[in-house]
Design goal:
Layout: E1 4-9, H1 17-30, E2 35-39, H2 47-50, H3 61-65, H4 71-74, E3 76-77, E4 84-87, H5 100-110, E5 116-120, H6 127-133, E6 138-143, H7 147-162, E7 169-175, H8 177-182, H9 188-195, E8 198-204, H10 207-215, H11 226-238, H12 252-264
Parallel strand pairs: 1-5, 1-6, 2-4, 2-5, 6-7, 7-8
Antiparallel strand pairs: 3-4
Length: about 270
């Protein structure tokens, strides 16, 4: 078993990176693919809260890097989902406590323990971002359908390509179809035209996400949640399945365009 390292990132904070990391991890493990989620946001950890594991932390990422514990000691096992683990960030340290080389070494050691390593990247483009993308085999860029978020996502795409990690794949999060139809929100087609990378996930706005996050019970565990279904579909696509996108619109021509963009990897 040799894991694939996936970094979830964006330029703008608050677009849903941590929620996506937790839910994709849950979905992968639920499908029988062992996954380890790593919170790389040192100083501001939140992944443990979203996953409902905050009360079980003994060791963290910096403890591993600085040799105060073994890798396995830092891996918190999820009690609900077999083969799902979390390595939390250190709350009382800063991003300089870990280097890109440290992340590469840690992930190389982890590769034999699981199939997927998911890294929750901090917002911004400084040291924490470089730490998070250093070991990545694949980068998922998350954006909301807002002009500022799409602009920041475009900048991130350029940065990861400069690091030889591109072009990455795109998750559009918190989409509201009714607002798109009224012209009050950017649509998927608009975003894909700007960013021109492969779409791997389309997550609709769903009130269940807030409730799930507050309860530490990722929405991917909720079979009736539209966002949960979207995260499960992302996990299946990561595993190579051809999964159609859920029809959020009645516009058949638009759905055909989405399918064409997915097949072509975003080429126009």
């Amino acid at each position: 078993m040799t894991a694939k390292v996936v970094t979830i990132t964006s330029g703008k904070g608050g677009v849903g990176k941590t929620t996506a990391t937790a839910n994709i991890g849950v979905a992968l493990a639920s499908l029988g693919h062992p996954a380890v989620c790593i919170d790389a946001d040192i100083g501001l950890r939140n992944l443990d809260v979203i996953m409902g594991l905050e009360n079980r932390i003994v060791y963290d990422l910096v403890d591993v890097v600085e040799g105060r514990c073994k890798l396995r000691q830092s891996m918190i096992k999820d009690k609900r989902v077999p083969d799902l683990y979390l390595i939390p960030a250190a709350q009382a340290r800063d991003k300089t406590s870990v280097s890109p080389q440290d992340m590469i070494r840690l992930c190389d050691e982890l590769r034999s323990h699981c199939e997927w390593i998911l890294i929750d990247s901090p917002a911004g483009i400084e040291r924490g971002f470089r730490n998070a993308i250093a070991p990545a085999d694949l980068v998922l860029i998350i954006t909301n359908p807002e002009v500022s978020a799409v602009r920041d996502a475009d900048r991130i795409i350029g940065l990861i390509e400069a690091e030889g990690k591109g072009p990455g794949q795109l998750i559009i999060n918190r989409l509201k179809p009714e607002m798109v139809k009224k012209g009050d929100m950017l649509g998927e087609e608009d975003i894909l035209d700007v960013l021109a990378i492969e779409l791997i996930g389309l997550v609709p706005e769903d009130d269940a996400v807030i409730t799930a996050s507050n309860q530490g019970n990722p929405v991917a565990l909720n079979a009736s949640s539209s966002a949960g279904n979207a995260f499960r579909d992302i996990a299946r696509r990561l595993n190579g399945e051809e999964v159609p996108f859920e029809p959020l619109y009645d516009q058949q021509g638009f759905l055909k365009r989405i399918s064409r963009l997915v097949r072509s990897g975003g080429d126009r």
